């Protein structure tokens, strides 16, 4: 709840109003209790000015917007059919996190009569979408990642009451410090479950994608399908559905499960158990091999002129590009190093543009030259390649995912957590130096680590924190 003292406004935007990323969140699972606990720090949004700013009418258009400094709060009134505009500038050289809050207080108590709402525009008058925006009886709150430049805020009362009650518009550029979120569990099945259970945007989730947690081939192309279905990715053993996966299907109120791969990856016993015991609809997408499976998955996606082509013999490159592929609705097709499998070759004519992820050590120039309008995205190793993907697709710099580069399971489950965010691979005990420099250059704020200490230990967290020391 917000509280106002004197002429300074302090806004406590908890997870209920301003969704993650906020503060530091840890999805922890104890070995004994087998229960997940979330720790969430609230973000304090504080306007420290001694006095507020009163709007000056007319300010009912972008051209007539009142100027407003960062970390200031303004008061105004909304008359009949009125809209108020304010403008501010984000200076500096880096993208910043910016918070807005709009509310009304009368005699020290919240006024909930008006239906207050706000909208943010860039210098060209285009709407800027926040990473989190909420509107309820108390008003509006929004969180944004903004590049330097001029912005405009439109304030309105959707109820159009013209009741003479003042509103308050508060803004803040958030202080820079690393906010680290770790999603983990006692094993890869728990970790995948916790990633799914903490993604409030997908609860409930009608659809769930299910992949084996024991090997990577059939799962490599799964992220675009999961995003297409608005579904999380859960993991299973070949012969038995783990208890935590079953519990999570219930938590998500799942109705339909899509299994990736044939019975060599996920047995008929698991499929029948989900159908008969859990009473869920089940669809299996598979082929005779990993290459046919990737094509079969592509056939379940919306039509696209672009496709990713990745090496099918290992996991790092395909998983590094998975969020970008999912976000752009591109299928991930698999290839061998020196030749294109028949299944993949047969569908290449469907695409005008292909993106080859990985260097010539995994996809040869011979294969590259056979692909339509190919562009190669690669680095000197798996860590540099994951960074090259982030740069190539100009992905979000203020919020990133991190997963071990030594195993596939955590990166697979995390690949659809945020499709606008890069998934960067990391050594176990420290950040790759180029990746660390990328964080320094962009003053990255939010870090989602997928996996426990056995995969990504505290040394990586300490490396992140050292950026801000």
From TrEMBL:
A Pfam family reported for this protein in Swiss-Prot or TrEMBL: CW_binding_2
Signal peptide: 1-27
Keywords: Signal
Entry-linked SUPFAM superfamilies: Collagen-binding domain
Gene3D superfamilies to which the protein is assigned, alphabetical: 2.60.120.380, 3.40.50.12090
Coiled-coil intervals: none
Descriptive protein name: Peptidase C-terminal archaeal/bacterial domain-containing protein
